[in-house]
Amino acid sequence: MAAPLPSHILIIGATGNIGKYITNSVVQSRSSFPKITVLTSVATASAKLELLNGWKASGVSIVVGDVTNPADIANAYRSVDTVISCVGRDLLDQQKEWIRLAEESEGVQWFFPSEYGTDVEHASNEAGRPQVRPYFEMWVGMGNFGYQLGGFDIKNKEATVIADGRGQIGFTTMPDTGKAVIAALRHPEASFNKALKVASFVATPNQVLAECEKQTGAKFTVKHIPLAELETFEAQMWKEQNPFAVGPTLRRIWATGGTLYDTWDNQSFGLDSSILESLEVAVQRHVRGETF
Description:
Blueprint: E1 8-12, H1 17-28, E2 35-40, H2 42-47, H3 49-57, E3 61-64, H4 70-76, E4 82-85, H5 95-104, E5 110-112, H6 136-140, H7 146-149, E6 151-153, E7 158-162, E8 169-171, H8 174-186, H9 188-191, E9 201-203, H10 205-216, E10 221-225, H11 227-239, H12 246-255, H13 279-287
Parallel strand pairs: 1-2, 1-4, 2-3, 4-5, 7-10
Antiparallel strand pairs: 6-7, 8-9
C-alpha cells in the first residue's frame, strides 16, 4: 500500500532564490495537496506583496511570523504534516531548532531541509562545509568574482573556465529543483528519510561554452584558470574570513567531480527525464538574461 501524500504543507523561505521555484511547483501541483501554507516575515510580507498575493489568489494561506521565534514556528506547525524549508545560508543553522519543534509537534511527519544543491557531505576545508546552494544558474553566471571563479558573460562574449573545461559536472536547474521536490512529495515511499541525488543533465564547461556560442552566434574569448590558482584563492578567502569564501570552495568541488555519482535517483522517485530541462534550454534562459 502506498504511503499517504502530504495533506498540509508549510513552506518556510518561499520567496527566496530557490524558494520561489519550489513554491511555484507546489502551487502548480496543488490538486495533489489539499492545503498549502507559506510562513513569511513582516518585512517580506510587505516587500514581496505581489508575489504573495499571487499565491494567495491560488489558494495558498499566508502566515506572518518570526522564524527565529520558536513560538511562531510551533504555531505555524499546527495541523501541518509536511514542512519544506527553502531558506538561505543565513538561516540554515536555525533549521536544527525547527526540526526539534517538528519532533515535538503533534502533526509534522516530514521535514525537507534546505539542502537542494551540492552534497553537504563534501568538506569545504578546515572552515567547515559549504553552506550555499549551487545550481546551473549560479554556476554559469559571473557573480562577484567571475573572472577568478569562472562564468559566462553573454553581453561581452567572454568565458572563464576552470582547468581545461573537459571535466563533467552534474547540473540541476532551479525549475527542475522544484519538480524534484514535487516528485519526492508524490512518492514518499521512495524518498522519505533519504538524500536524493538528482541531475537535470551532465555536461562539461566546454559543452556549455559551445552552446553559448551556438545560441549567440558569436565566438567567445576564453580564459582558463588553473585549478591550483583557484585553490590558492580559496585558501586566501577563508584565511581572510571573507563571507564569499564558500564561492571558490564550491567551484573547486564542481571542477573536481564532486557533483558526479555512479547512479542518480531521478527514476527511483518518479522524476522523469522528459520533464527536465536540457543544457540547451538552461543556456537559452541565461542568454535571455533570466537570473535567479
